[in-house]
Design brief:
about 350 residues; 8-stranded parallel barrel; two-stranded antiparallel sheet; 14 helices; 10 strands; about 45% helix
């Protein structure tokens, strides 16, 4: 059965320990180019400063070409360029960091199975640290067997890499319980390493964490419920807010090392409440990825450029409102805006 297979699979034995910590869902840097058909082009020159800032903030790695990175608005070639650029930067960062390397995870999900497989094979060729794949959202898998068959074909295109299922039902419409997906997938996907769990069902998350003696890496993807997931045993996470306030979430992880004491739990609770107050700033904006990209510029002073159509940038009035709201929760802004 799945439990027995997981315990016996030597490749899977260290996935949970291998991927501890916070991973930033990275933004894709664009610059305006009126000569381009898309009016925007990927600008990798901005990534080095970005990466160094993440390392300084205590982030363990990045999740490239995900939702925050506008992956579904990128071409396959653009996604390859970004993955290669991040790997080049990681190699430089990791000189002298053998004990705690900065890791690069790459999302390879797409609407086309062929594109997924091509991106998976490319990721393996450049030796990224792992790949993740969400279900296609147009022609959706209608049941667990169909989803697992799809994932197995993608995973087989990068058999040497840890493979993550990217669970994001709000975007894909694929809402099968993840622990049931894993029970079906474990025997047939040898390089299955875990999942990016961007769902709200903590009961499902808890059942996932208990699979195969807690050997898998389940990255929690809902910052609002981070403390709840940590209480269940989560030790790794992927999220857009780790670009801006990783210190708060790392503090929760630190407190979780001994949540048996009321003092540690109270500190963790305070960090979660503050973080939720901060993330609530974004509730009034229509597209989280766009607002977070703008907030990143305001907080960190690094301009990652506009979003790509069909997403639209914040208006001057919206950016000014965002700036005021960020200041209201205690941020000193790094970039000036119209107030």
């Amino acid at each position: 059965n799945a439990e027995t297979w997981g315990i016996q699979n030597p490749k899977m034995a260290s996935y949970r320990e291998q991927f501890q910590g916070l991973y930033a869902a990275s933004f894709t840097p664009f610059r305006v180019d009126e000569s381009s058909l898309t009016k925007t082009v990927v600008d990798t020159s901005r990534l080095e400063e970005y990466a160094k800032m993440l390392v300084k903030d205590g982030v363990a790695g990045v999740f490239v070409n995900g939702t925050a990175g506008e992956s579904m608005s990128l071409s396959v070639n653009e996604r390859k360029i970004l993955a290669e650029a991040w790997m080049d930067i990681a190699k430089d960062i990791n000189k002298g960091r053998a004990d705690k390397p900065f890791k690069v995870l790459v999302h390879i999900g797409a609407q086309s199975l062929a594109d997924c497989c091509e991106l998976a094979a490319h990721a393996q060729s450049i030796r990224v640290d792992g790949v993740g794949c969400m279900a296609p959202g147009f022609f959706k898998p209608r049941n667990i067997d169909a989803l697992v068959q799809f994932l197995s074909l993608v995973a087989a295109s990068a058999p040497e890499l840890p493979f993550l299922y990217y669970h994001f039902p709000e975007m894909t419409g694929c809402s099968m319980p993840v622990h049931k997906v894993f029970e079906a997938a474990i025997p047939i996907i040898p390089n299955l390493a875990g999942a990016k769990f961007t769902g709200f069902d903590l009961s499902d998350m808890g059942r996932c964490l208990e699979l195969c003696n807690r050997k898998y890496a389940f990255f929690f993807g809902r910052e609002h419920n981070f403390l709840g997931a940590v209480g269940l045993g989560a030790i790794c996470a992927i999220g857009v807010f780790y670009n801006m306030i990783a210190d708060r979430y790392n503090a929760i992880l630190d407190c979780a090392s001994d949540l048996a004491t009321s003092r540690d739990f109270e500190q963790a609770r305070k960090h979660q409440i503050w973080s939720n107050n901060m993330t609530a700033v974004f509730d009034g904006f229509p597209e989280l990825a766009v607002a977070c990209k703008a907030a990143f510029k305001l907080i960190k002073g690094i301009d990652m450029g506009p979003p790509r159509a069909p997403l639209t940038p914040l208006t001057a009035e919206q950016e000014a409102l965002l700036a005021r709201q960020l200041q209201s929760v205690g941020f000193t802004l790094a970039a000036a805006t119209h107030l």
